[in-house]
Specification:
Shape: globular
Helix content: 10-25%
Strand content: 35-45%
Structural class: alpha+beta
Distance between the termini: 29 Å
Radius of gyration: 15 Å
Number of strands: 8
């Protein structure tokens, strides 16, 4: 079962996040085989983290909750909240298999919080070359569509936002994002 997890930083938590970086990476190392994508969301300066995104394949919702809430930054109070949803990987690959590589171009998390009938359930062919991860957000039992999450390369936030069908979502968030993990 695939899950989308977005830890959102609480204001002023950057020093704590920085202090916990090695613990965070060591914790994530435990899930290396299960990772589909990972990386920080960033403030307008392109450097300061505002959150942390992880997309993983885990056995069940209980394992996903344990992953999200046992994370060292969460345990230390670095995050204001956590969005945790079932997810379906429509690309069938990890971010490490993205043909565009890890560098070059601006990258974004686009998060559409659903409203009403499901939308954007197929990979948009015209944007396929820029998609790093893409899929629907689902209820724990995967029967209800709750939105769509995508990681993509785009020229700017407006172009990233245009990935989703605007009038089908209660809200659409666009966050600067970069691939995460230990520096090589």
């Amino acid at each position: 079962m695939e899950f989308f997890c977005h830890h959102r930083d609480r204001p002023g938590s950057f020093p704590l996040r920085k202090q916990l970086l090695e613990e965070h990476w060591s914790y994530m190392d435990l899930f290396q085989k299960e990772m589909i994508a990972r990386g920080p969301t960033l403030a307008a300066d392109g450097e300061t983290p505002t959150g942390s995104v992880h997309v993983l394949d885990l056995p069940d919702p209980a394992a996903a909750r344990a992953f999200a809430f046992d994370e060292p930054g969460y345990q230390a109070g670095a995050y204001r909240d956590v969005l945790l949803r079932r997810w379906r990987d429509l690309l069938g690959r990890t971010m490490w298999e993205f043909p565009g590589g890890r560098a070059g171009g601006d990258r974004y998390l686009v998060l559409g919080l659903g409203e009403g009938e499901a939308a954007d359930l197929t990979v948009p062919a015209e944007r396929g070359a820029d998609l790093i991860a893409y899929g629907p957000l689902l209820s724990d039992d995967a029967t209800a569509w709750l939105g769509t999450a995508a990681l993509l390369r785009a020229p700017d936030p407006a172009a990233a936002r245009a990935l989703l069908t605007e009038d089908r979502y209660a809200a659409i968030e666009v966050h600067a994002w970069r691939p995460g993990g230990r520096p090589s």
